[in-house]
UniProtKB/TrEMBL annotation:
One of its GO terms (molecular function) is DNA strand exchange activity. Residues 10-158 form the Resolvase/invertase-type recombinase catalytic domain. This is Transposon gamma-delta resolvase. Gene3D superfamilies: Putative Large Serine Recombinase, Chain B, Domain 2 (3.90.1750.20), Resolvase, N-terminal catalytic domain (3.40.50.1390). Keywords: DNA recombination, DNA-binding. SMART domains: Resolvase. Residues 167-291 form the Recombinase domain. The gene is tnpR_2. The keyword Amino-acid biosynthesis does not apply. It comes from Clostridium ljungdahlii. CDD domains: Ser_Recombinase.
Length: 595
């Protein structure tokens, strides 16, 4: 430690006011004058820097930028003496006061508290500092308690309102809220639509169509925002208070209260919604939500349709069923399925015409139910017929190349790469045979697709090994046995629509990648779909999409791919006395993944 004298001191001054409205010496301007006067009395001081924190608490050093800058400058040796008015200006937290004065002392820097007449270089300096800091900390505790008591009285007796006024439908004017007529109409519109049976998504769509603005003056809406509005008692002239509290007056950490501890006060300002309508909305919301143990509540809308729970759009959204048309001969309703994202938010053309953002827009065309029925029939006929051995071989490939802990991963990957190369060569030879006319087109396509399936299976295994994602060998063997057992089942393919229970058993998901490209994720090895897919409610669509791709690549194996041509589709329709024109059809490409 360097020797300290009363001559030629490089001095830093530190001041703090906890409010911009303190009077006398506590006021910011007066503090500066007071420090200037002290400097004039000490000609041996060379004032290097003045550090002031204005309108900032003294209980936490981390919330005082000037204080922290001063400590950093001290570490750089810019001064050897810090002058401050009193301990309470330096810190109202005993631990902070001792921590920083000790740190400064180790660097040979003295701290003087002029009014308290304490120097950290005095023999009893730390003891006196501890006592004064403890007193300052206790004063902060008393101030905190007085503030809480004042807030209690303000809430219970005076009905004081909190908030900046950034709430749709109202503007803050002095101590109350006044209605903004244009915004209030949007609020009434939201409540009316909900009472008329509209869901949150449909309300959002209508607001966007009508160009209604939110509280930030933007034509931008979220279902979560609308849901909170429908629960906000501000719209009936009341306000929730005590929603948060400060757990510790020293760290100022704000904690959210349980709703049971909220305080509902009468705001004495004009309501936008009647109490009767507000209570009706609350009753409807209660009926529409479901809550699993340990989970947040979420909206429910059940459907008995088998495809609704299986279809997923490439954008990450689910599909919505609607009436496609009515069969004139049978009177039977034909169903169609449309992407919910497209229905709720509109196509690209619509959003452009209405000057709406194009983020996340989806233009996926609707799907008629018989296309799905044709695909699943085609797929299962393939698996139970020509493709049965391909599916089993795909899983045997995984089992044979399973990586035990004692097997070198690099060696296994090289082995898989060799198989990929071998299958690619087979495809090349197959192409030459087809080009030379030695094999027919159907044989070429079937064998080519089979080899491509083996290649993708091997590539998937390489990814799995690289990512450290493995399966127990025993589980793989059990899966293979279950697959063989499933494929031995008899299925009646001489019907237009396969049994719903069979489809629910075998199909995990149908992902619509484009208007004519589908991915079918099948479960022929047992196990619940919940063990594979785990999405959160209201998760962003792009995150859902990415998770879906990752799940497909890590949990499923590509078995084969195929194309449904016009001839195949026409034959299917003709089989059941229905017709199809060529201009009504676009070939469907699909890939089949199994687990």
């Amino acid at each position: 430690m360097r020797e300290v004298t009363n001559k030629n001191r490089k001095v830093a001054i530190y001041g703090r006011v906890s409010s911009e409205h303190e009077s006398q010496l506590s006021a910011f301007a007066n503090q500066i004058k007071w420090y200037d006067a002290q400097a004039e009395r000490h000609p041996e001081w060379e004032i290097v820097e003045k550090y002031f924190d204005k309108g900032i608490t003294g209980t936490q050093a981390r919330k005082r930028p000037s204080f922290l800058k001063m400590i950093n400058d001290a570490d750089q040796g810019k001064f050897d003496l810090i002058v401050t008015r009193e301990v309470s200006r330096f810190a109202r937290n005993t631990l902070d006061a001792l921590k920083y004065t000790r740190q400064l002392k180790e660097h040979g820097i003295e701290v003087r508290f002029l009014i308290d007449d304490i120097s950290t270089f005095d023999c009893d300096g730390e003891t006196r500092l501890t006592n004064m800091a403890a007193y300052a900390q206790d004063e902060s505790r008393k101030i905190s308690e007085r503030v809480k008591a004042g807030q209690y009285i303000a809430r219970h007796e005076k009905g004081v309102l909190y908030g900046s006024g950034n709430i749709l439908g109202y503007n803050r004017l002095g101590k109350t809220f006044i209605i903004d007529d244009e915004q209030a109409e949007t609020v009434r519109m939201i409540f009316r639509m909900y009472l008329d049976g509209y869901g949150l998504r449909l309300i959002k769509t209508e607001l966007l169509k009508k160009g209604r603005k939110n509280s930030k003056d933007q034509v931008k809406w979220f279902e979560s925002t609308i849901s909170r509005m429908l629960e906000n008692p501000m719209y009936i002239g009341k306000q929730y208070q005590n929603k948060t509290y400060v757990k510790d007056f020293l760290d100022h950490k704000i904690v959210r209260n349980d709703k049971i501890n909220y305080l509902l006060i009468d705001g004495k300002f004009e309501p936008i919604i009647s109490v009767e309508d507000f209570e009706k909305v609350a009753a409807i919301k209660k009926r529409r939500v479901k809550k699993n143990p340990g989970q947040n509540p979420y909206g429910i809308k059940t459907s008995n349709d088998k495809w609704i729970n299986l279809l997923e759009c490439n954008c990450g959204s689910r599909f919505q069923q609607y009436k496609w048309r009515k069969d004139k001969k049978t009177g039977k309703i034909k169903k169609g399925y449309a992407c919910r994202n497209r229905i709720n938010n509109g196509r690209t053309e619509y959003r452009k015409n209405n000057n709406l953002p194009l983020d996340g827009v989806c233009d996926r065309k609707t799907i008629c139910d018989w296309h799905l029925e044709l695909m699943i029939k085609d797929i299962l006929e393939e698996i139970w017929g020509f493709r049965k051995e391909s599916v089993i071989k795909a899983f045997e490939l995984i089992k044979d190349n399973f990586v035990d802990d004692n097997i070198n991963n690099v060696s296994t990957i090289n082995k898989l790469n060799s198989k990929i190369l071998r299958y690619k060569k087979k495809i090349s030879v197959l192409t030459d045979l087809y080009t030379d006319g030695d094999i027919i087109k159907r044989d070429f396509i079937d064998n080519r697709d089979q080899y491509n399936g083996f290649i993708k299976t091997a590539e998937s295994e390489i990814k799995r090994i690289d990512g450290g994602v493995g399966l127990e060998k025993k589980n793989l063997e059990n899966k293979l046995q279950h697959i063989k057992k499933v494929l031995e089942q008899l299925i009646d393919f001489n019907v237009e629509q396969l049994d719903d229970s069979l489809i629910r058993q075998l199909v995990d998901k149908v992902i619509v990648r484009s208007d004519n490209k589908f991915e079918w994720l099948l479960n022929i090895s047992g196990g619940e779909m919940g063990d594979v897919f785990s999405f959160m409610l209201n998760e962003k669509l792009d995150i859902k999409r990415q998770k879906s791709i990752e799940t497909r690549d890590t949990k499923y194996t590509l078995a084969f791919s195929s194309i449904i041509s016009f001839d195949r589709a026409r034959a299917y329709r003709k089989q059941y006395n229905k017709y199809l024109r060529k201009n009504q059809w676009t070939d469907i490409n699909y890939e089949v993944y199994v687990r």
